[in-house]
Amino acid sequence: MPEFDLHPFPGQDSGGVSIQGTIARTPQAITLSFFLQGNLGDLVLPTATERNRCDNLWQATCLEMFWAEEGTKNYWELNLAPNGGWNVYAFTDYRTGMRQEDRIAAPAITTTRTPERFSLTAELDIAPLHANNALLRVGISAVIQYRDTRLSYWAFAHPEAKPDFHAPQSFLLRL
What we know:
Mean pLDDT: 92
Number of domains: 1
Radius of gyration: 15 Å
CATH class: Mainly Beta
Strand content: over 45%
Shape: globular
């Protein structure tokens, strides 16, 4: 099961927080886990109270996965909020053709929290999109909101001058 570490955008302080995770794929699903550790008291991490499909989750703390089939321009974006909100969007090309991906059902989401650690695991059924078990390019990222309202942007890599999780160069994992 591949493990990952996310890093804040250059020039942004981690605030004493680290973000790691794991990802695994079967022909039917992707299971994605995020582990936030450290000074969590400064972060906005609302308790899981809903499991609704929501828009604009990236405007607050949001854990994300972007993926595309190898050799294609279209891609998908998964947004997961600590409160249980979620959504999946499809794009036809880099930042174009965005629409809600209705072929994807609600992921199974579990969260746990202690004063020093927050974890979120989501299992997403991708079979309606990738029945042929094609090789996927994956990028994993996070938007973290602090109690003082500032946001920080975390990813495997930051290939652009500004935070841009849609950049194909940041889809570094192969599943």
